[in-house]
Every structure is written in structure tokens, then in C-alpha cells.
Design a protein that fits this description.
By secondary structure, the chain is α+β, with helices and mostly antiparallel strands. The chain has eight helices and eleven strands. The strands form two sheets. An eight-stranded mixed β-sheet has the order 4-11-5-10-9-8-7-6, sandwiched between helices. Helix 5 packs across helix 6 and helix 7 crosses helix 8.
């Protein structure tokens, strides 16, 4: 299938999301675009995407793997499989294994309710590096990740400078409880990302309230396609409360070893 035919078969919103995701990759490797973090080998910030309609050869997949190996990074891709149906079979024939098919969720301005935080908590738009560090500390605990580093704060600061937004939720006594962000927009699309709540304050409606607030703020800022990727069906149910529905899938696939 040629790129034009593949693009025509995609829903317009899927094309917009795929183009948004591709814009974050700056290293071309054949029909793939990859992004590499010079300071971290975290696989979630080092991955590639195929171009819309890509039909890679076995040799091109080998080149992709070699590029990741040369940088001491795990060969890995994240993408909307409907945007390039020929890619997954080629990757699997090269030994790649599916990590997960995550729900891809979208919404409309009318579907997003206003969800109030429990009065025990307060929310603030993050502007200082001190609050960015507090946000990342809460999110790392929420996701069971190591403590944040200065590069995490710097990466999010750069995202804010490009038009993104971060939100920190804390208790009335000032202890960080969770938060999230929407990423720097590209052609009207933005990802609602990093939604997390520390274990002590989970099941208090914080995640749904943060998602709702960020999404409504994105719409009010003139963006037309907020989207998010849910970790699984339980998380998707939380985002349903915030007005999102599952409209597709994001494939995470990598080469073991």
C-alpha cells in the first residue's frame, strides 16, 4: 500500500495524531523516524515510528535495529498500527514482540465534563522548576519509577516553553499528590499525558479531574484534537469519566534482549 492510499484509509483524527507523533521524531532511518534521548536509556523516550503507509523491507528493519544498538538503546516502536498495516508483520518476522496494544482515546468539547477536585486537594498550573520537580516526584511514585532527575525537569520545562501545560495537585498542607500535563501542540493536536496519582491518594477522583481540566484548558486554548493513550482498560475507564472514548489503538512493540 502506498502512503497516499494508507492516509486515505485512516480517519482524519488518526492521521492528525500520527502526524503529531511523527513530528516528535527527528532521526530518519529508512521509512522510520526515531527519537533518542542523549541522557536516558528509558525505552519510553527512545523509540521509532513508521511513516504513514510504510512497507519496510527486512533490510530496512535490520538497519533500524542496528541504529538502536549503536546507541545502546532497546529497539522499540510506538505507533498507530492502522497507519502502517504492513509494519507489524515485518517486525514480528524479525523477532520483535508486542508489549501491549494500548487504547487510543479521543473526545469532543461537548463530551468533557467539569469534574471538581475533592476539597482536600488544590490544583495549580506549574510554572516553577520547584513545582515541576514536585510533579515529577509524585508521578514517579505513581508509576513505580526511580526518582526524577534534573533532565526530567529540563525536558518538561522545554515542553512548557513550546506551549504545553503541566498541572500539580497537592494536599492543602502542600504535599504533592499527583498531576499531569498536555504536551506542546502541533497543528492543533496535543497529548494528555503523564496523568498519575500517588498510591496514598488514589481512588479519590484526582486522575479524572486532572484529565478533565487539562482537556478543557486545551480546547479553550484553541486546540482541536486532545488525545491520550491509556495504560489499560482500568485506566481507560477513568478517562471515560473525563469524556474520552476508545477510538483506536497504539502499538508498543520491541526486540527482546
Amino acid at each position: 500500500m502506498c502512503a497516499g492510499a494508507a492516509g486515505a484509509s485512516l480517519r482524519a483524527v488518526d492521521t492528525q495524531i500520527t502526524e503529531y507523533l511523527l513530528a516528535g521524531r527527528d532521526t530518519r532511518i529508512g521509512p522510520f523516524l526515531a527519537g533518542f534521548d542523549a541522557h536516558s536509556d528509558n525505552p519510553y523516550v527512545n523509540y521509532a515510528m513508521p511513516e504513514i503507509g510504510a512497507e519496510p523491507t527486512s533490510a530496512e528493519v535490520d538497519v533500524l535495529v542496528a541504529e538502536f544498538r549503536s546507541r545502546n538503546r532497546k529497539p522499540r516502536l510506538e505507533y498507530v498500527p492502522a497507519s502502517a498495516p504492513a509494519v507489524r508483520p515485518r517486525l514480528e518476522s524479525a523477532g520483535f514482540e508486542v508489549e501491549q496494544l494500548h487504547p487510543l482515546m479521543t473526545c469532543t468539547p461537548e463530551s468533557v465534563p467539569e469534574i471538581e477536585l475533592d476539597p482536600e486537594f488544590e490544583a495549580l498550573t506549574v510554572t516553577s522548576d520547584e513545582d515541576l520537580l514536585a510533579l515529577h516526584t509524585a508521578l514517579c511514585e505513581a508509576y513505580g519509577s526511580p526518582a526524577p532527575e534534573a533532565t526530567d525537569v529540563a525536558r518538561t520545562r522545554a515542553m512548557l516553553n513550546r506551549g504545553g501545560m503541566a498541572m500539580l495537585v497537592r494536599t492543602r498542607s502542600g504535599e504533592p499528590a499527583g498531576g499531569g500535563m498536555y504536551t506542546a501542540p502541533i497543528a492543533g493536536a496535543t497529548e494528555i499525558a503523564g496523568i498519575g496519582v500517588r498510591p496514598a491518594w488514589q481512588r479519590r477522583g484526582i486522575a479524572a479531574a486532572v484529565t478533565s481540566y487539562l482537556t478543557r484548558t486545551a480546547y479553550n486554548a484553541g486546540l482541536d484534537t486532545p488525545f491520550l493513550t491509556a495504560a489499560g482498560e482500568r485506566e481507560a475507564a477513568i478517562y471515560n469519566r473525563a469524556g474520552f472514548t476508545t477510538t483506536g489503538r497504539i502499538l508498543h512493540i520491541s526486540l527482546p534482549g
